[in-house]
Amino acid sequence: MREDVRYLTALLSQLDESALDNVSLQAAVRTVKEEAEALGIDLKQILAEMSAMKPNRLQALVSVESLMEDLDIAENSANTILEIKEGLIGPARQRNDETISLKEMIAGTVGNMGLPDGVVEMGWAEDLPMVRADARQLEQVFDNLIKNAWEALSHAQVSAPKIYIVGARDEDPNFVQVMVKDNGPGIPKEIQEKVWVSFFTTKGGKGGTGLGLSAVLQIVNQHGGRIWLESGTGKGVAFFVRLPAEK
Ligand SMILES: Nc1ncnc2c1ncn2[C@@H]1O[C@H](COP(=O)(O)OP(=O)(O)O)[C@@H](O)[C@H]1O
Ligand SMILES: [Mg+2]
């Protein structure tokens, strides 16, 4: 943008167009001059005002576009900071347990995420027991799992992206199990253990904080549950979350 301003200023400063050696530029300057005159605009005066401006003022004036870009960057940075804070502090926050229907809670979480229609499919066992948990922390668990699935699907540009969420009673009747499965690229064997480690991310430079799964793991463990994953490369990932059923 700044280059454009400099170029324009240089061009207009050649108000005597005959001094230009490029014919089409001469014509352009002549047209601009004629149009300005017709509108009663004094180009010489505008030029003098622009030259008197400090360069950064000039840029701010002209470059609304780059200002919007800056705002975008600031917004993204703020979101990243919030994510980091939530990832680090979320699991440590004082727990406020209540009786939760996983079906309702997860349906709400999915609804808030605004994913395209048809991506998420949910299935729930009819006799699914309630769980006792901190609603906000548990939302963070499923929000992270679904977000990761969606990021993997989008990044790999899967043609018919799917996220299946299935809730059922665990083999052990004292537990409930929720599976979150996608048909994305999967997680290669050699990093399957690392994904749980704080700050491990394969999304470097694209907003990955590497705190999602470590927060998920901590929260599930603190609730007396267990989480694990199964994945074959190219076959997507299935995360299994097992939580104690309410007595
Ligand atoms: N559904 C998924 N499909 C493919 N890779 C995944 C999936 N979920 C997690 N991962 C991998 O695990 C890594 C760590 O995830 P996470 O802790 O949430 O951090 P982040 O999402 O910020 O990278 C990701 O960078 C990605 O490589
Ligand atoms: Mg994540």
Gist of the model:
47% of the residues lie in helices and 17% in strands.
What does this entry look like structurally?
The protein has 247 residues and is of the alpha+beta class. It has helices spanning 2-13, 23-38, 43-52, 55-62, 64-89, 102-113, 135-155, 212-222; strands at 97-100, 120-124, 131-134, 163-169, 175-182, 226-231, 237-244. The strands form 2 sheets. Strands 2-4-5-7-6 form a 5-stranded mixed beta sheet. A two-stranded antiparallel sheet has the order 1-3. Helix 6 crosses helix 7 (135-155) and helix 7 runs antiparallel to helix 8. The protein binds adenosine-5'-diphosphate and magnesium ion. Adenosine-5'-diphosphate (ADP) binds next to helix 7 and helix 8.
Fold topology:
Blueprint: H1 2-13, H2 23-38, H3 43-52, H4 55-62, H5 64-89, E1 97-100, H6 102-113, E2 120-124, E3 131-134, H7 135-155, E4 163-169, E5 175-182, H8 212-222, E6 226-231, E7 237-244
Parallel strand pairs: 2-4
Antiparallel strand pairs: 1-3, 4-5, 5-7, 6-7
Helix pairs in contact: 6-7, 7-8
Bulk shape = elongated
Mean pLDDT score, rounded?
87
Portion in beta strands: 15-25%
Number of helical segments?
8
Output the CATH class name of the largest domain.
Alpha Beta
* Distinct small molecules: adenosine-5'-diphosphate, magnesium ion
Q: For the record, give the distance between the C-alpha atoms at the N and C termini, rounded to a whole number.
A: 65 Å
Kindly name the structural category: alpha+beta
> Total number of β-strand segments?
7
By CATH's scheme, which homologous superfamily of the largest domain applies?
Histidine kinase-like ATPase, C-terminal domain
Q: CATH topology of the largest domain, anyone?
A: Heat Shock Protein 90
Order of helices and strands: HHHHHEHEEHEEHEE
CATH architecture assignment of the largest domain = 2-Layer Sandwich
Over the alpha carbons, how many angstroms does the gyration radius reach?
Answer: 29 Å
The description of the largest β-sheet is: 5 strands, mixed
The strands making up the biggest β-sheet line up spatially as: 2-4-5-7-6
As for the number of domains, it is 2
Low-pLDDT regions = none
Helix content: 40-55%
